[in-house]
Amino acid sequence: KQWYQRRVRGDPVRGLCVLTLSSHTQGVTSIKWSGDNLIYSASQDRTIKVWRPSDGVLCRTLQGHGHWVNTMALSTDYACRIGAWDPSLQGKTQHGDALTVYNKYKGSGEEFLVSGSDDFTLFLWQPSKSNKPVCRMTGHQQLINQAAFSPNGRTIASASFDKSVKVWDGKTGKFISTLRGHVKAVYCISWSADNKLLVSGSSDSTVKVWCMRTFSLLNDLPGHADEVYTVDWSPCGSRVVSGGKDKVLKLWRS
Fold it and tell me: Checking CA distances to 143, which of 12, 108, 223, 230 falls within 20 to 30 Å?
């Protein structure tokens, strides 16, 4: 049964609740707004739900994980992030060009979604058209903290409590390589805008930069006094920011 409750019609910029969507039976852990105008929600109830935001209809439920779903990523995340601003164009584009940018990164097919779970697995989906997974991706030995598509959507990276980052094909889910170097759990990852580098942050207090052509460690960036909880690469690709338990942000320049 599809459950949703209409609360208030109004302008969300003014802080009004437009719709309340209810179907999950446990806490919601991750939300993604698709460029195809769908909302994906992941939950501790082991499911991912696909919603239509215009009227709150639950389109489908994705099932397969055996434990909490911790993370989701879309093959179009980079396009959705930069919106009408494309660093490759050396400046701001018109708002109307955002759809063109999105379609360029999406390509001719459907966008892909990858999910990672406490069950040590990832699933690859095409959720806009099917509730069946493209594949189940196994190899991690502990729970998965984060998964991320490369900006071009061709590659997936996943970070795990097993101290590793694994690399997968973004279209088939086929395993490609394992990045080893952290000595404690890997909490977070982020891709450079040119798809050539990946940065990771860990419980071991280090930030590491990996070459994604050779799948080797390029730079080790010590400096944090405690666990690194989050990292992000600037859209232009020139800087990385990291933050963690030591209460500070650090900016790193390439």
Answer: 223
